[in-house]
Amino acid sequence: MDVSDLIDPLNEAQREAVCAPAGNLLVLAGAGSGKTRVLTHRIAWLIRTEGVSPFGILAVTFTNKAAREMRGRIESLLQMPAGGMWVGTFHGIAHRLLRQHWREADLPQSFQILDSDDQYRMVRRVLRELQLDETNWPPRQAQWFINGRKDEGLRPEHVDPQGNPVQMQLVRIYQAYEQACQRGGVVDFAELLLRAHELWRDRPDLLAHYRERFRHILVDEFQDTNAIQYAWIRLLAGDSGQVFVVGDDDQSIYGWRGARVENIHQFRRDFPNVKLIRLEQNYRSTGTILSAANGIIAHNADRLGKELWTAGEKGDPVRIYGAFNEIEEARFVVDRIRTWNREGGARSEVAILYRSNAQSRVLEEALMQAAVPYRVYGGLRFFDRAEIKDALAYLRLIVNRGDDPSFERVVNTPTRGIGDRTVQAIREHAAAHQQPLWQAAMEVAEGTGLPARARNAVRAFLELVERLAEETEMLELHDTFEHAVTRSGLIEHCKKEKGERGQARIENLEELVNAARQFEFDEEQHEGMSALSAFLAHAALEAGEGQADEWEDSVQLMTLHSAKGLEFPLVFVCGMEEGLFPHRMSVEEPGRLEEERRLCYVGMTRAMRQLYLTYAEVRRLYGKENYTRPSRFLRELPPEFVEEIRLRGMGAAMPSPSRRAEPTETADGLGLGQRVTHRKFGEGVILALEGQGAQARVQVAFDDVGTKWLVLSYANLEAV
Ligand code: ATP
Ligand code: MG
């Protein structure tokens, strides 16, 4: 059999891993050394030369996107579809299992997934039920506690509060939350994993079936598995499964969320005869980028220690740019992207990475102003937008009336005269009778506790949902959506919101109908569920990965965390400032600081050809303006691989506006110190001017809204 296409594109060490004899194997290697490639080729190798059926393979990736890409690559290597193979994230795979065995898992057939926003609402509701005050018991903290315990595999009864009253109360909240979820037939993300684990643990017959089936288990990004994921793999593998994991301790960046890099060591202890293979050649980055990244990560103690080298070119230096403020930083980035684009580079080859999601807004605005198409990967994504969540809530209620978070979301959206007091009465009734809100609402509507008007309004809502369910029963998915967004009154509701915002919402709802239409064609995703249930699960699982406009050549924006595993010819890491990156929460704890440093390493090693690290001397974030200091990571860079960019009249060389070598008067005769008025922002005084013609910008300190940079030609300033 000719296997040259499988092994020729591999180096010696990679080949050894791909062709290793049956058994457990750990590939431990740095960024860009081909771990993911090895894993992909291994699967193709197993199917083609070892005669393993695709049905016998389970592969875990870190994102759904990575899963799709991996399946695609395997199928192209094999030149045939590999249907029966399971490739997905831990969450996706757990979800699939629970769908197939909902009965055994003690779930309703139409159970729904709670995303973290839904979960937050649910926690708040539970706090109200328990009559706990949110100032003493912040819902976020309770949510954090619950997820943390679930990630460790602990149910409330397993948590030992050690006599600590705060812990005891948190355990009670966890317990009440769990009951509320069970009543409503909803599961959060952590629950998917925990329940999938319990399913196998408690059902030896099922476990035996899956052990028989999945003899080959492969896991990418193994350094970021948490306790429950590890336990789950162990359970599945049993004594005879073959486990192939790849990872890099230097890229462990989810410790804060329960990931345990120790799993790498644990793996070698728990599994018999683990073969260890190291890969040392990097194929992704230029020599300079690689050396700079190596220089940073060398500051961490406690590393397993790996050296990476590349046969590639040395390339350009890593460029550092200190901007005057965050707006100018964004403008700098956009300028460079346009140059890249003009010189023939595609926009999709560019990634802008940042530590905190909130940083994206300013970058997005700069890109929009310059009409550069972009996509935000993670962050505020399509499925997270309010109007989309409203529409999905109606659909979720159609599938499952017991879905309390959805009930709460739309019971009075659009407004239909169901006030807080009525909702509160329904909640109390539900709590008293341990029933879903839907059931409680029916009883409240028939009772006498509320004024007739309120009861009628509740009844109208219940009837609306029942009617939607009936009317859409026989419809195609996209017609169902169309019908639901119209008949629910959501479209009308958005129309009332004036201006572009309302319009954008309507467009989003229309896009949702489109998404449903596309989904109809993709039957593989339905996995035996109704198309609607399948779509809702897909929306919940994919929300974090935003897929809008995939066909358009666009710049990619994402947090450093979500950039893991990806690569781009041109990368910007923005906001290299103390307190932002490393994040202020981390600087006091050495362990967390090292995790931030690994994050920096992950970010830098995404770059193939060019890498920019930028910071702003003044940054307005979360509504506060701060003078910043450049990140310590910049100082840790070996200077021989770095070049600082200084632009005339901008940035680091010009820390204060008064020192700018810029015009002192605009074409319209507005000068520094001039008082002006702006239609929206009111009155203010001009602090700085820069650029000429269409590029001209002006900085104004407004009396009410603070200091802003404006594009002069759009600002329509008038002298006062
Ligand atoms: P990360 O740690 O960032 O996840 P990785 O170790 O998984 O990285 P890959 O993404 O598999 O690395 O590979 C990095 C790049 O190098 C990819 O573009 C891949 O196609 C390429 N590559 C890997 N091995 C080889 C090889 N032997 N010859 C040529 N290119 C290779
Ligand atoms: Mg990888």
UniProtKB/TrEMBL annotation:
Domain UvrD-like helicase ATP-binding residue range list: 8-286
Gene Ontology CC terms: cytosol; DNA helicase complex
SUPFAM superfamilies the record matches: P-loop containing nucleoside triphosphate hydrolases
Region (Disordered) residue spans: 652-673
Domain UvrD-like helicase C-terminal: 287-565
Keywords: ATP-binding, DNA damage, DNA repair, DNA-binding, Helicase, Hydrolase, Isomerase, Nucleotide-binding
Catalytic reaction annotation: Couples ATP hydrolysis with the unwinding of duplex DNA by translocating in the 3'-5' direction; ATP + H2O = ADP + phosphate + H(+)
Annotated residues for binding of ATP: A29, G30, A31, G32, S33, G34, K35, T36
UniProt entry tagged with the keyword Hydrolase: yes
InterPro entries to which the protein is assigned, alphabetical: DExx_box_DNA_helicase_dom_sf, DNA_helicase_ATP-dep_UvrD, DNA_helicase_UvrD-like_C, DNA_helicase_UvrD/REP, P-loop_NTPase, UvrD-like_ATP-bd
GO biological process: DNA replication; recombinational repair; response to radiation
PROSITE patterns according to UniProt: UVRD_HELICASE_ATP_BIND, UVRD_HELICASE_CTER
Keyword Coiled coil: no
Molecular function per GO: 3'-5' DNA helicase activity; ATP binding; ATP hydrolysis activity; DNA binding
EC id: 5.6.2.4
Family per similarity comment: Belongs to the helicase family. UvrD subfamily.
Alphabetical list of NCBIfam families matching this protein: PRK11773.1 (NF008743), uvrD (TIGR01075)
PANTHER family, sorted: ATP-DEPENDENT DNA HELICASE SRS2, UVRD / RECB / PCRA DNA HELICASE FAMILY MEMBER
Name of this chain's protein: DNA 3'-5' helicase
Annotated source species: Thiohalomonas denitrificans
